[in-house]
């Protein structure tokens, strides 16, 4: 917790423009991290759906 407090103190010692720039950077990084998470989830789901289609197709054919 002390690290967080010292980080906050350091950020608050910056001028307003620098704080705004830092906030913008953090927000953009959070957005990018979330996009990567969503893309990863989508890839997993695509694989699951493809597997299910192949499985049910094979079962329906009696394979």
Q: SSE layout and pairings?
A:
Blueprint: H1 2-12, H2 16-61
Structure description:
By secondary structure, the protein is mainly alpha-helical. The chain has 2 helices and no strands. It has helices at 2-12, 16-61. The radius of gyration is 23 Å and the shape is elongated.
The separation of the N and C termini measures: 59 Å
The level of helicity is over 70%
Number of strands: 0
Order of helices and strands: HH
Specify the structural class.
mainly alpha
Offer a quick outline of the entry:
The chain has helices at residues 2-12, 16-61.
Features:
single chain; 63 residues; mainly alpha; 0% strand; elongated
């Amino acid at each position: 917790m002390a690290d967080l407090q010292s980080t906050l103190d350091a950020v608050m010692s910056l001028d307003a423009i620098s704080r705004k720039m830092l906030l913008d950077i953090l927000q953009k990084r959070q957005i990018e991290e979330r996009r990567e998470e969503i893309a990863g989830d989508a890839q997993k789901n695509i694989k699951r759906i493809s597997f299910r289609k192949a499985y049910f197709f094979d079962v329906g054919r009696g394979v």
